[in-house]
Amino acid sequence: MSGSSLIELSIAVIILLGTILGFLSSIGFIRLPDVYNRAHALAKSSTLSVLFVLLGTFLFFLFLEGYFSIKIFLGIFFVFLTSPVSTHVICRSAYHSKVELAKESIQDDLQEAMEEYTRKQQHNKNTEEASII
Amino acid sequence: MIQWILFFSLILLTFSILVTIYRLVKGPTAPDRVQALDALGINLIAGVAVFSVYLRSTAFFEVILLIGILSFIGTIAFARFVERGVVIERKQSD
User: N or C: where does chain B have the smaller number of CB atoms within 10 Å of the terminal CB?
Assistant: First the structure.
């Protein structure tokens, strides 16, 4: 077996690993009970899967074609930066729009902090109105 | 050999895209659907990358970057819309 076909094979295995991770994350996405659990399944493994696939593509074109692709590099960087952020923003908007937790969940730690936050905001609003008057 | 591994990866990606579309259609709440769209974008990025390795062509790399950016912006806009009812907030001038 020559060197370049060995490199090719290992890169294909990296890509296969990435897609298997994505498949597992999509199983979690369909099986888990509520939005927050599904976000947990999606944020980590899906990001890791797309990173593996893009890294495999980058290495493939770097070693076999001798082509350093800055676009793929930027894509890796951008996906790594934005995928957790977008999941966080979706979870935050779900909690703010009062999506229910699953029946199996035991405690909700965010609730107290959220009540404190809304009370403080209400207080600020009231003092602002009073100062205007 | 390599071609078959890449083909198998494409089949797995197709399955995960189908699952995501199921969640996009059925999902009980709006954040579920937004999340499904986000996952769809990420799976599409992976699919385009595998396909460009399969064809040994560098022509599709712009597509990867573009889908990444558009999917992120769309997710942020949808999340703000679900949370507050508007996408861009303007200050009330009097």
Answer: C
